[in-house]
Amino acid sequence: MAALDDVEVAGDMETRIYMLDMTLPEEKISDGLFKEAQCLSQQRQKKIRALRFGKDRLLSLGAGILLKIGLERYGISEREAVICLGEHGKPYLRDYPNLHFNLSHSESMVMAAFSDVPVGCDVEKIGEARLPVAHRFFAPEELKRLEQAPPGEERNRLFFRFWTLKESVLKATGNGMTLPMDSFTIIPGEPVSICGGTYDFCEYNLPEYQAALCRKTDVQGAGDIFFSFQKMQDVI
């Protein structure tokens, strides 16, 4: 397997973001493709095999590849790492409590984040802005901005900006959906204070996709952010 393109590390404390576009020609989506999973842990291979649809298996494979690459950066083998789930379902490394990670995927895009501080990430394929969903989950100021945005591309992008930012908060705090999404207000470009901590954001605008990173910044270790993007067709 070819390695993902990467960037040079500057310093010990860092947050690293990897994104992998799993779009492939139909002829490459075959059982042979999943031989790539043989380099991954038994837990990941079992998860891939358990999925019914090829698209879901492909995304799970992509998540495993990014997890492998990210952990290798810290000298950790994905095959040997013990991954557990927190109280609200957030995965963590049992034997490496100071290394935090998070995974997300949507349609054909997979995202992974690794950091020395608590971190969450979310990627979504942009579709129609869902106002009923916004009324249910968005804070009043967010809803107001969305309704004031011109219908069409601008409103759609704004909806998914808010959604990915808010999802990344739920994942970074480790509270998941036990933390009501309308209990905090996102102002793009500004940090948010929640759950006894301060969290900042980084957004990624990709063709047809919106992604967000959230990380805890009031603890030692919140250093620079490094970003890597690759296409699966260039990896295999």
Describe the structure.
With 236 residues, this protein is of the alpha+beta class. The protein has a single domain (14-235), classed as Ribosomal Protein L22, Chain A (Alpha-Beta Complex). Helices cover 29% and strands 27% of the residues. The protein is built from six helices and ten strands; from the N terminus they run E-H-H-E-E-E-E-E-H-H-H-E-E-E-E-H. The chain has helices at residues 42-50, 54-72, 131-137, 140-148, 153-173, 232-235, and strands spanning 14-21, 83-85, 91-93, 100-106, 109-115, 119-125, 192-194, 197-206, 209-216, 224-231. The strands form three sheets. A four-stranded mixed β-sheet has the order 4-5-1-10. Strands 6-9-8-7 form a four-stranded antiparallel β-sheet, with helices on one face. Strand 8 (197-206) and strand 9 form a beta hairpin. Helix 1 packs antiparallel against helix 2. The longest helix has 21 residues, at 153-173.
